[in-house]
Amino acid sequence: MFLYDLGVVCEEEPFRKLVNQGMILGENNEKMSKSRGNVINPDEVVKEYGADSLRLYEMFMGPLEATKPWSMEGVNGVHGFLGRAWRMIIDDRAEEMTLSPALTNDAPNADELRILHKTIKAVTEDVAKLSFNTAIARMMEFTNFFTKLEIRPREAMEKLVLLLSPYAPHLAEELWELLGHQQTLAYEPWPAFDPALTKADEIEVPVQVNGKLKARLK
Fold first, then answer.
1. Residues 188, 162 contacting (CB under 8 angstroms)
2. By C-alpha distance, which of 181, 175, 144, 178 is closest to 161?
3. How does pLDDT run across 123-165, given as a tens digit for each residue?
4. 32-44 tens-digit pLDDT
5. What is the SS3 string spanning 88-130?
6. C-beta separation of 82 from 168 below 8 A
7. Residue 212 burial class via C-beta count within 10 angstroms: exposed 0-12, middle 13-18, buried 19 and up
8. Residue 96's CB: how many other CB atoms inside 10 A?
9. pLDDT of residue 181
10. What's the gap between Cα 106 and its chain centre?
11. Average pLDDT along the chain
12. How far is CA 146 from CA 60, 72, 98, 102, 138, in A?
């Protein structure tokens, strides 16, 4: 408002919404305090799991406004996800840092395109709603799908790295460089999605009679 009075900015109120983040409790569901001895030192978490895991877990704990308890098992869980995302792109068995032999420059097939564009759409919408926990869950689903494939399209892997970068910037930046990019991903545009590619060509509908499953129709 001070800058508005000076004529430097054109809007009196720059904010559209106020969001109060919820409190993080100790693992015993009590408020963190030195007297209770349940304070978590972030430096120790970073030392053991890395800054990206700490950052990711804080956003994955639950809705931003909710009060939620801290869990080291949860930190370990998101650390495992980052490890899977890394191994999906990087060959961790090689002596030198190199891309996984599963990566291909071939275009994604229909199923892969659908998963890719559904993920981009969901993460984009979740970011706009500050629903960081569900955005991370979408990327976990993406990773679970592509990890099972013997061949993974490079295009899909690069898009995932861009989606992951606000949540795990250190890991994403390193992956981006290993994928052959000379410039930081901070200057890359956010991935776009095609709504038509988010829809499945075929769905399965279960048919029940008196509460019992009788058939599955496609």
1. yes
2. 175
3. 999 999 999 999 999 999 999 999 999 999 999 999 999 999 9
4. 888 888 888 899 9
5. HHECCCCCCCCECCCEECCCCCHHHHHHHHHHHHHHHHHHHCC
6. yes
7. exposed
8. 5
9. 93
10. 24
11. 92
12. 21, 27, 18, 10, 13
3-state helix, strand, coil in the chain (%, to 5): 50, 10, 40
Q: Please identify which residue in the block is written with the tokens 């890991």.
A: 171
Where do we find the tokens 């002596």?
A: 95
Dist. CA 71–CA 206, nearest whole Å = 38
Please, which residues have CB within 8 angstroms of residue 213's CB and are 6 or more apart in sequence? Answer: 206, 207
pTM of the model: 0.83
Strands (E), 12-59: 24-25
Answer left, alpha or beta for residue 203, where phi above 0 means left and psi between -120 and 50 means alpha. beta
Buried/exposed 23-35: b ≥16 CB within 10 Å, e otherwise: ebebeeeeebeee
Residues 6+ apart with CB under 8 A from 153: 103, 104, 105, 106, 107, 108, 112
CA dist 172 and 58 (Å) reads 18
Q: Above 80 in pLDDT, residue 202?
A: no
How far is Cα 152 from Cα 163, in angstroms, rounded to an integer?
17
Q: Which two structure tokens, joined as six digits, stand for 87?
A: 């191994």
Give phi and psi for 58, each to the nearest 5: -60, -30
Tokens 């993920």 sit on residue: 119
